[in-house]
Amino acid sequence: MAKRSRETIEQKIVIGFFRGIWWLLKLPFRGLRKKEKFSLEDRKFLISKKREIEELLASRDHLRLRQAVLESDKLVDWVLKKDNYRGETFADRLRSAEKNIPPEVYNSIWQAHKIRNQLVHETKAEISKETLHQAVKKYFHYLSRI
Q1: Cβ pair 115, 131 in contact under 8 A
Q2: Domain boundaries in the chain?
Q3: Are 97 and 85 in contact (CB under 8 A)?
Q4: Residue 57 pLDDT class (50, 70, 90 cuts)
Q5: Backbone angles phi, psi at 38, to 5 degrees
Q6: Are 132 and 66 a contacting pair, CB within 8 Å?
């Protein structure tokens, strides 16, 4: 007759205790191994979209500059979504990312987004080419930090 190994209540308590200690010891080290946020395909997409935007900027045509601002805004929004920032709108996602973005970069993204909103919501918005160009630069500054 084979003997069964049965754990006593005391053994179960001791094992559970040490498992709890091990879990607590590992807790501060979770997330230290950084997982790549963006896959190779994501990086290729990001690079191709930045090139498209740079081509729009190179023309210095007012309509193409407006399009560059809109495309830059969409690209930053795509990055925020990829980084799993929550929110219904770009503004909501940007607010949830505030803690992880340096204040000067965060504020410049807001300024650029306000220009984008003027383009979209104000039909008679008179925005200079230089302002549009600066807005795209502000978006690119954030994108360069990725």
Answers
A1: yes
A2: 40-144
A3: yes
A4: very high
A5: -120, 135
A6: yes
